[in-house]
Hints:
The protein is mainly alpha-helical and 406 residues long. It has helices at residues 12-26, 85-95, 106-114, 117-120, 124-141, 146-150, 153-164, 169-189, 215-224, 227-239, 243-248, 276-284, 309-320, 329-340, 345-352, 368-387, 392-400; strands at residues 31-33, 36-38, 52-58, 64-70, 77-81, 254-255, 258-262, 269-273.
Amino acid sequence: MAAFHNPSSNHASHRWAEGLRDQGAQGAVTRAKGSRDALDQAPAHHALPKGVWFQPKTLKDGARVHYGYYGRGAGSIALGRRGTPAFDSALAKLGGRGLAVAPGTLSNLIGRYRASREFSRLRAVTKKDYRGKLDLIQARFGSLTIAEINAQTFAEKIFAWRDEQATTPRQADYGIQVLKLLLSWSCRRGYIEVNRAARVERLQRSRRGGRSWSPAQIQAFLDAAPPHMQLAMSLALETGQRQGDLLRLCWSAIADGVVQLMQSKTGVVVAIPVSVELQSALDRNSSSRSGRILVKADGRPWDSRGNGFRGAWREVCNAAGVSGVTFHDLRGTFITRKLAAGWTPVEVAMCTGHALRDLASLDTYVDRGVLARALAARRQATSRAERSPEGGASNLAMAFGHGTHG
């Protein structure tokens, strides 16, 4: 872990590895104490981090070997067989730059989380981002004990850390987000009793709710876009999915009038009904019903990370005179339009992948002005329908420009 500080040397972990290999070659390894093996007589610069212990095992040929572990219980970290390159590598990763990680500290919790199944399931880019924030968290709070982590005063320290980063609010909020996740994971595992970061508010309030695409902007984009970019607009507008997921979406994901996919960011499986507008766009671009749906003008797929696509999207926006909105704002536009059309928050969340236990998070994306005007038009249409039953259904449909669940 890069955040460890070693006052004596920056290469202690290499000395551990060298010492262990020397000891393995000499055959002078361990003195087992019950199920534990300690290197009490090893030279000081070969000392292992506190919390590392060994389980002896006798092989079929009678040889005695030892397998190392860090920590105890369900969260312990397996280091592998002592004296092997794998053990040396695991030990170097554990020790970072050489300072022992004391059990019962926040540094210990970070090590356990990084070795957990939950962390291993994250995308590579997410892991990289989280590691950076975990290093900062460790540098600031790593020495805190479990009792100090549970104490109310820890919340004060978290607020102070956040406020010190007020000049970069987005990064400050990201650090708090990762700390919340770490403490929540620790609570679920029973390592700590309370998540003192849970009620720490964000510094930066999202403005996404005020940036939904207007009908005029959508039409201007479609008028300026070539067919393959028109399909990209329709797919984003009618599914509310993130750019990367749509660039990876294949024709096989559409069946029985439903688009189904697993979101790469969250791992959540979502299913979105195919609207009339989306079906029409798909039919206009159905020369090939295999492979990815969104492709370049020459039929080749886009890079799934958005390289090339972002530039092409920006060119169409410039040609159409569209500014002040992004591709991701189409996700908020989808949510706003569906709520305005009468969808329930649960129905919207089933499409967007938001947790049903936290439907309030949809508010981050909603353009309240657009929603309020749509609801006003809806009430007016309902009032007219009550006065004129024969025209009620058509009036209601006209108020939104599409069907209730289109």
